[in-house]
Design brief:
It is built from 2 helices and 6 strands. By secondary structure, the chain is mainly beta. 14% of the residues lie in helices and 38% in strands. It has a 6-stranded antiparallel sheet with strand order 2-1-3-4-5-6.
Length: 121
Amino acid sequence: MIIESIELKNYRNYERLHMDFSSGTNILYGDNAQGKTNILEAVYVCSTTKSHRGSKDREMIRFGEEESHIKLNVRKSGVPCRIDMHLKKNKAKGIAVNGVPIRKASELFGIVNVVFFHRRT
């Protein structure tokens, strides 16, 4: 599985972000509090429907906004797949895989395989 790109709109500290990844190793680096973990969290959310931080959906929406979007493009066994996630402050999240809405988180599992290590400071 290869993560090809991610797009964030009104997610955490990002008004908008589009990031393409190489098929090899990708390293996110920068100063503290610049949003590196927010990108990793967005990938995790698209994999599991939940935040590793235990955050509620409304807490992942950028301050002052009503909704947020995450689009994750992956390639698994040579087949492209797009996960679209729509977070709203006072409604259930909407999730679609390749444009087809899903109803249960279990339909999402296995598309993006992640292992997430996080150290709280």
